[in-house]
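Please, structure for the following, as tokens.
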Amino acid sequence: MSLVKSNRPRFTDIEGLAAMVGHGDAFGVGGHHFARLPIALLRAIARYGVKDLRYVSWAGGLPLELLLEADAVAEIDLCFSSLDIFGVPPKFRAAAESGAVPVRDWTALAMIQALRAAQQNLPSMPFQLPQGSDMLDRVPGAIARPDPVAGTDTGFVPPLRLDTFVVHAQRADESGNVQIIGPRALDFAMAGAARKVLVMVEEIVPIGALRQDGHQSILTRNQVSAIALAPGGAYPASCLPFYVTDYQALSEAFATKEAALSDKLRLPPNGLPERLRDAAKVSAETVLAMPALAYGDRKPSVDEIIAARIAAELDNESFASAGAVSPLANVAYRLAKATHAPDMIIATMSCGHLDIVPSPMILSLIESLDCETAAAHAGGDDTYSTYYQAGAVTHEIVGAAQVDRRGRVNTIALRKPSGGILRLPGQGGMADVANMHRDYLLYIPRHSVQSLVDEVEIASSARGLLTPAEREPMGYRTGKALVFTDLCVFRLDQASRELTVIETMPGVIQQQIRDATGFAVTFDAGCREVPLPSDDTLAVLRNRIDPLGLRRLEFVSAKERGALIAEILAADRAMVEHCIAAQRSPVAS
């Protein structure tokens, strides 16, 4: 049972917070992707030599890498683990592949409901079954039973209780209320499920000062155990509106192995780099007012053709959600909204930023621009109940490592020719939303017999509810189920429940597709060629929406990725410096 916390937290320092973490704790970590990660506190916990933690979070990523490096983790419960553009975290991959640390994969909804069960002192919580996938058998303690009222099969999950939850936030007032600005991920559910809530903040402000800010959420002081003032405590991750993510520092930290990751992620001796603070102040108005870039008239590449083709699926009635690490999805959504679908809704940061303006995808500024232009901010827990479970989202385009002839996806693990396991990031919330969203759109950037297979080893997600007869009783709209590759577009046929090619990429012949597919390919009678994007569409895509070419990251090999990241980071830095200069001297821009 979750314990009621005292009315006022105690104020301490980072070392004081770290001393409150016990060996063997069920240990939750807050923040989201590279936003508001409690890096300084995790480094302190590692120094204290805490062991045998049960790591619990929606995502693994950088926090988990720090704790694995310190040999502090005995068990892992998560939905997904990625270092964003830098790929699958190496320490997580090594631990999972060797079996040195048990990994339990959850669906996002199952984890949310398990945390809510703990938060609400309930013996279990129901959730929609991830129909068509294998995930129910992978979630700890989850079962399917007839609902006691309606009699329909429903998932039930026991409480997921935490001993300690750590999080970085923007501010606390002198009485101990904690302010979170922007998306709050699963922070509130995890805080409610934890006995101890340990918080780092950028500022401590007088009582009453928190009332003056917008776009905020408040953890009231009776929910918080202790607070430490730690300016720059999330570095090299972001904490808006104070500083943006230092992608250059992250790239250097991941690229070199001479020193411990914990040492490479410490604040620079002179404190936060000024450019990170200045970048956080760049407004969407400044960026949108800058002249568009010019890339010339080169022929459209396959990544541009796919982005434009996906964008064509969207219209003014679309509500499109961008998940964890999906540059291509983000580009397609923004392209549609900037051209033919200005009234569509785009939600980024896993629905944390709601109804954004399609700002350019400048790597270091994406989060701050979306945070500024969003009509509202939300947490991952309430976006499920408000949008996903309600069937309100029309599209979520997600990447897949492997898809089989029935459209089932594997993003958890692949079997190596040697017999070993290649660990993948995980499915995040795909198993849930594959059925909840009206349109189920997947993409595989490199079409091959390894990526398009007869049957996946693990069905991490699938469109199990396909026909109107299956979907309407659940309250879901029926739409398209498509798979985009660099060779063709498949449709998941409602009658055969198998993939059929409905379009081929320009210049691709049917035999190429047959040779590159691990199952017998069927072509629709009306199969046609994907149209090339217009010159106007290409100009918007290249010059306004994705000037750095982030979409390319999903279409290159692992060997090419490092050089491309270096190119993007150099261009990103130059563009951010230009934006900072324009912000300071708007007349000169």
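Residues 396-532 form a domain with the Glutaconate Coenzyme A-transferase fold (CATH 3.40.1080.10). The chain has a mean pLDDT of 94.
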